[in-house]
């Protein structure tokens, strides 16, 4: 104690303990808007509603909207209800932070009492951040969630393989004891037991050494049909199929076109129930409405609104609309008018004009590819709408089809790019599958095929990096979109022509799909799903019955099992929190053709100069200065 001037003494300040603190509930509910409820008023028109206000220190504005059969709609005046505390804390957090990042959290303490309050910081949390402020007579506790994200670069890898225990479609090489081996790589190995009709798959989930610890995760997703993932993600879950950014109209078609092919496939297989049928119809309607936003007054289509019309895009759109017309109502005039515009773009030699300068390339192979795309659109629409042919202008312009086909035939020998050759061959097959020119093109296309270590067949201008060496999945690069598109058109050709192993082609395509079932861009995804759907129709089993068991070589208690039949073939079966860093065993029995995806995510360190926006280089060299006479 100490003595005052008048001789009295003061007591030292009391040391406060946790038991001395006033009781206080934690404030952790801070919505911006809440309480949306429907109430039916009694005859007298009065009703009392009891509410518990959220924890925010603010002024709430309540408004009621009434609907009556006699008085219509009425809106009340806002009723304001302030929420106040004389002593409280305001904690302001960023939306998200990166793990290991140093963050400045602003904490403001408000005291509206007439006396001063001494505040002692006690503690704070990591994810659930709690701020507890106190004085001798007051206390406030605020809890806010801080979203912490991992440092480094996020990497997504997806491993896909088919479920085919009878090995009826598989690309394989014989082995001992009535077994065959497929996909023997450093990451996955499939062994087919032909005698017992079983498929044994081992997956090595040993990740790269530079993975940031704690960021890895793995999820397994399986379907009883090759189109199940497309329909689930696009139609049921309304998610975008393609991860890469696309231009406006191309983004719409990237979801619409492949989903239409997938829906047509399951419809033909009899796997579509009434619920999926209705949802698919609504999906197509919404997609068509969105794509018409890019329609011009002359009935063509542009990649972005306000730009010049695009020939290849118009052909792409019209082909998609023709296929979608059997799933939902699409005005035939929309298609006919578009083809009329398209026919006016045909030059005298059979090539096509492209007005969009971002796409136009004045080289022969590009002109051939554009002509092939237009002829494919014409022929697919004509073949797909044979019953409704009189209502479409496509069938009445045989001269235009012949003109474009002659241009393709004349320049066939000048083609060197496998993707251009695949498109031209498919176009010639649709126009006349019995012609010598098509047979010559198919033979030429077959000579351009490439084969990887697993026996899979693909078409590419250069050998894909993934196929050259036996390297783990985590170090593989995604195949180029042109290789996917070329291989897809080749599959469509040889499904009908029959001179090449289509199982080996389909296996390669399945392995290139992303976690949503799509590929890279709109064009390659559309034709690849179209090709795989046609392949699925040919390989479909009438009595689907697949049993799958997933176990771990290290965790003996780890076990998951699921079964696919005709009733649930399109419903995905998922396994979350799959153990990383070990080998999984997948055992498949029964009959059918399904697919399994192993989706892995992890973060890797980023080079410190990776995100630099500028690169400054300084060069120093000697120079000789010559002075003019007037300066001297």
From TrEMBL:
Keywords (A to Z) from UniProt: Signal, Thioester bond
InterPro entries: A2M/Complement_sys (IPR050473), Alpha-macroglobulin_TED (IPR011626), Ig-like_fold (IPR013783), Macroglobln_a2 (IPR001599), Terpenoid_cyclase/PrenylTrfase (IPR008930)
Superkingdom of origin organism: Eukaryota
SUPFAM superfamilies on file: Terpenoid cyclases/Protein prenyltransferases (SSF48239)
Gene Ontology CC: one annotated term: extracellular space
Listed Pfam families: A2M (PF00207), TED_complement (PF07678)
Domain Alpha-2-macroglobulin, residue spans: 33-122
UniProt key word Plastid: no
Chain ranges passing through the membrane: none
Protein name: Alpha-2-macroglobulin domain-containing protein
Natural source organism: Candidula unifasciata
């Amino acid at each position: 104690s100490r003595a005052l001037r008048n001789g009295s003494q003061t007591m030292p300040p009391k040391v406060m303990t946790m038991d001395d603190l006033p009781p206080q509930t934690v404030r952790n509910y801070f919505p911006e808007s809440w309480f949306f409820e429907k109430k039916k008023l009694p005859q007298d028109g009065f009703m009392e509603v009891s509410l518990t206000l959220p924890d925010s220190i603010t002024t709430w504005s309540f408004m009621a909207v009434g609907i009556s059969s006699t008085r219509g709609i009425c809106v009340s005046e806002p009723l304001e209800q302030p929420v106040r505390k004389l002593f409280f804390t305001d904690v302001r957090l960023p939306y998200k932070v990166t793990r290991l990042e140093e963050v400045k959290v602003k904490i403001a303490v408000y005291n509206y009492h007439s006396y001063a309050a001494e505040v002692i910081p006690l503690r704070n949390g990591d994810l659930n951040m709690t701020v507890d402020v106190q004085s001798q007579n007051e206390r406030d506790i605020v809890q806010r969630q801080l979203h912490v994200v991992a440092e480094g670069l996020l990497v997504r890898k997806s491993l896909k393989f088919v479920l085919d225990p009878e090995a009826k479609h598989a690309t394989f090489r014989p082995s001992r004891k009535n077994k065959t081996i497929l996909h023997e790589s450093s990451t996955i190995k499939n062994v087919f037991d032909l005698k017992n009709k079983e498929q044994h798959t081992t997956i090595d989930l040993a990740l790269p050494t530079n993975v940031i610890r704690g960021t890895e995760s793995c999820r397994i997703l399986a379907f009883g049909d090759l189109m199940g993932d497309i329909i689930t993600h696009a139609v049921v879950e309304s998610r975008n199929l393609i991860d890469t950014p696309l231009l406006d109209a191309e983004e719409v078609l990237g979801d619409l076109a492949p989903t239409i092919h997938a829906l047509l496939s399951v419809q033909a297989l009899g796997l579509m129930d009434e619920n999926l049928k209705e949802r698919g119809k609504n999906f197509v309607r919404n997609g068509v409405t969105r794509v018409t936003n890019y329609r011009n007054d002359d009935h063509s289509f542009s990649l972005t609104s306000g730009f010049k019309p695009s020939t290849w895009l118009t052909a792409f759109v019209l082909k998609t609309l023709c296929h979608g017309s059997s799933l939902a109502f699409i005005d035939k005039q929309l298609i006919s008018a578009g083809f009329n515009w398209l026919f006016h773009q045909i030059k005298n030699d059979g090539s096509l004009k492209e007005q969009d300068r971002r796409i136009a390339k004045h080289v022969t192979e590009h002109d051939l590819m554009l002509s092939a795309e237009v002829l494919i659109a014409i022929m697919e629409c004509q073949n797909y709408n044979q019953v409704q042919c009189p209502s479409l202008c496509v069938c009445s312009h045989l001269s235009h089809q012949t003109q474009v086909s002659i241009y393709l035939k004349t320049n066939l020998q000048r083609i060197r790019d496998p993707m251009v050759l695949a498109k031209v061959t498919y176009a010639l097959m649709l126009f006349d599958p019995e012609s010598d020119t098509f047979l010559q093109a198919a033979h030429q296309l077959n000579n351009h095929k490439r084969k990887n270590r697993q026996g899979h067949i693909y078409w590419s201008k250069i050998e894909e990096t993934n196929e050259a060496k036996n390297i783990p999945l985590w170090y593989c690069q995604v195949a180029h979109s042109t290789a996917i598109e070329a291989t897809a058109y080749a599959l469509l050709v040889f499904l009908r022509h029959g001179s090449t192993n289509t199982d080996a082609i389909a296996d390669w395509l399945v392995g290139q799909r992303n976690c949503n079932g799509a590929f890279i861009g709109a064009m390659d995804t559309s034709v690849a799903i179209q090709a795989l759907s046609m392949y699925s129709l040919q390989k479909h089993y009438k009595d689907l019955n697949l049993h799958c068991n997933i176990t771990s070589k290290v965790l003996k208690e780890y076990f998951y099992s699921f079964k696919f039949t005709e009733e649930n073939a399109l419903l995905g079966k998922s396994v979350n929190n799959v153990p990383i860093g070990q080998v999984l065993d997948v055992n498949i029995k029964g009959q059918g053709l399904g697919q399994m995806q192993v989706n892995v995510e992890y973060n890797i360190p980023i080079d410190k100069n990776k995100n630099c926006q500028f690169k400054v280089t300084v060069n120093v060299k000697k120079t000789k200065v010559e002075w003019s006479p007037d300066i001297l």
